[in-house]
Amino acid sequence: MTTSHVENESHHPSFMQYVVVAVILFVVTIVEFLLIWDRVGIDDDLGASKIPILIILSLFKFAVVIMFYMHLKFDASLFSLLFVSGLALGLIVGLALLAVSFGFEGKPRDYALANAVPYVHEGEAAEEHVAGEEGEEPHSGGPVNLSVGVVGDALQFDTASMEASAGSEITLTFNNISAVNQHNLVVVQAGTKDEVATAGIAAGADNNWVSPGDERVLFNSKLLDPGGTEVLEFTLAAGEYTFVCTFPGHNITMFGDFTVTP
Amino acid sequence: MAHTVQPSPGDHEYTTTGLSHRKLLMWVFLSSDCLFFGALIATYMVYRGQSLNGPYPVDIISVPITTISTFVLLMSSFGMVQALSATVRNDQKAIQMWLLVTAALGAVFIGFQVYEFNAFKNEGLTLGVNLFGATFFTLTGFHGAHVTVGIIWLLGLYIAARKGRIGPATSLDVELMGLYWHFVDIVWIVIFTLLYLIGGFDAGPTVLPGGSG
After folding, report:
1. B106 and B152 in contact (C-beta within 8 Å)?
2. What pLDDT was estimated at residue A138?
3. Hey, is the C-beta of B107 within 8 angstroms of any chain A C-beta?
4. In this structure, which of A52, B17, B132, B156 has its CB flanked by the most CB atoms within 10 Å?
């Protein structure tokens, strides 16, 4: 008879061994759960030291199932060779993908960090308070008071548009109420916000992320730390402008229209 | 032993390797499935923490519930080895019972997954809402599909067992089922660790204290 005959009947683990393996799998899963249990409900970054432990524990379970439940430990070595080859190839492909994404291709996570908005559970959506635009009907030449804030820690001004009339003495109060983010407020020619922001990156934080002498920039605040406030006073000629935060990455979401009527 | 009675063709035929070709084929398939799931897991890891809007994992993932369903799936593997063991012993009652128990535990696992997917959908996580949703549902969905196929396969074997067609001579049928089932189990071990234990608390790419930007 052939060898396949033998392998099918003689080398299987006993009932007790199966039970022991099941108990091991159960216990390891409980241990894994207890390892992370103290973190349940806490949304900070995890205790990184636990990651290797969790990975080792899961690899252990993985190996136990393959060796005993799938009999690879007792079976022909060709099966092991086949499976381990596929496993290794899969692992290498995965690692290569990760390496390409993070090693060579720039920093996608930084982009995400700069642009994400917090998730609000349905039903607890905060009331959108619209600050700004509280200046009365602008009239030519008269003083106009405007104020702009920030939506929490999101990368958004709390005001989508502002309006004034040409030649008005505009007093603009910019409030960075964010607890964590630095922001500035830059008034630029409409349609140039992204180019201005790109130029600002080159200028660096020391220049408040605004390129000195940039002709597209009409006025800009300093780079405000969380909680900072600045009052800007200026006048504008009639036209379409954009106000934007030029902190790197913020310009994608953090801007609004500034219309100056004749 | 009763092996002289009607050996199944796949089980005892002569092969150049001396190994059953059906079993070899199953291992080749499982090997290729490693690549399939390896790619999906790697894709999840590449896009981890890059969703631009919620819900993020920490908003919706329930580790305690999934720990229970993981436990259920692990125990179904125990049922599977008992079914094979009963087949080798030709214990007909036990074969039927363990096949059914394994299928039932698999179905409970799928039930947990259906509940989870539905809860996530109600919380706003869909395949298209963000990178987390896209990679999470693709990976766990394909795993769930594997489990579902396994349940159907188990039920097929159960019906065959009811008709008395499963025994020592056809133990390879049950053994191949077991290989597939355990493989689905170990894939879940990896998914559970990476997506739930480690990744389940990702709060999205919010700015960490101390950083600005």
Report:
1. no
2. 42
3. no
4. B132
From the candidates B8, B50, B172, which should be mutated to test the interface with A, based on the most A CB atoms within 10 A?
B50
d(CA B6, nearest CA chain A) in Å: 14
Is the whole model's pTM more than 0.90, yes or no?
Answer: no
pLDDT, position B109: 98
Q: How many structural domains is chain B composed of?
A: 1
Q: Is residue B172 part of a domain?
A: yes
Task: For residue B53, give both structure tokens.
Answer: 């809007």
Helix B131-162 to helix B92-122 angle (10° resolution) is 160
CB-based contacts of B191: which residues, under 8 Å, 6+ apart?
B41, B139, B140, B143
Q: Is residue B14 situated within a structural domain?
A: no
- B57 in a structural domain: no
Name the stretches of chain B with pLDDT < 70: 1-13, 205-213
- Determine phi and psi for A97, rounding to 5 degrees: -60, -45
Q: Can you tell me the mean pLDDT for A56-84?
A: 89
CA angle B3, A78, A82 (to 5 degrees): 125
Residue B86: which CATH number? 1.20.120.80
Give the Å distances, CA to CA, from B191 to A13, A61, B66. 27, 12, 11
Is the domain spanning A143-261 CATH 2.60.40.420? The answer is yes
Please indicate, yes or no, if residue B8 is contained in any of the structural domains: no
- Give the mutation candidate from B62, B81, B98 for the A interface (greatest A CB count, under 10 A): B81
Interface test with B, best of A31, A42, A43 (most B CBs within 10 A): A43
Which of A128-132, A167-171, A234-238 has the lowest average pLDDT?
A: A128-132
Domain that residue B181 falls in = 19-48+64-201
Q: How confident is the model at residue A33 (pLDDT cuts 50, 70, 90)?
A: confident
- Tell me the one-letter amino acid at A82: L
What are the structural domain ranges in chain A? Answer: 3-115, 143-261
Cβ contact A70–B179 (<8 Å): yes
Q: Is the ipTM of this complex over 0.90?
A: no
Give contacts of A 41-100 with B, CB under 8 A.
Answer: 42-46, 51, 54-55, 57-58, 61-62, 65-66, 69-70, 76, 78-79, 82-83, 85-87, 89-91, 93-95, 97-98
